[in-house]
Amino acid sequence: RFVTTNAGVASVTGLEIDGQLAASASGRFSYSLSLLDAHYKSYAPDGVHSWAGRRLDRSPRAAASVGYEHSFRMGGRRMTAGIFSRASAAYMISVPSQLLQYRVPGRTQTDLNAGYQPDDASWSLHAHVKNLENKVLPIAIDSFGMLVPGDPRTYGVRLDYRF
Length: 163
Prior knowledge:
The chain has a 7-stranded antiparallel β-sheet, with no helix packed on it. A two-stranded antiparallel sheet has the order 5-6. It is elongated, with a radius of gyration of 22 Å. By secondary structure, the chain is mainly β. The protein has strands at residues 9-22, 27-42, 62-73, 77-88, 91-95, 100-104, 107-118, 123-130, 138-141, 147-149, 154-161. The protein contains no helices and 11 strands.
């Protein structure tokens, strides 16, 4: 018999700062910083064992990101290039029905993008690489203990045409 109950009482406090800064007329920095203290105050997933004081799932103590995108003109065309990187502290994922918690290690992930658009053209070309480091880590876990992995390195090219 399975009984679904509320997660009890949790305490979540934190600070988040994000913004953008124009480095020039054609360049822009983006940044963010998140600090988080999220834990159970009272929770017994099976009604017996207390998880009070344990961290909430998918709540790293700190995460930060920084990015830069630059746009420039070159002989009748507009080109863009950007880099974005995010770092996250370790966090937990849980299977409460089995009283299990797993630690996902801290990580970084970097993405790159580029674009090309001729003046007065009805088309543009875009390319990207996501997860340049190619680190695949779990992002979730189901009640049977099956992990849901994050994406490996992916890349692609997109052609946009407007008519």
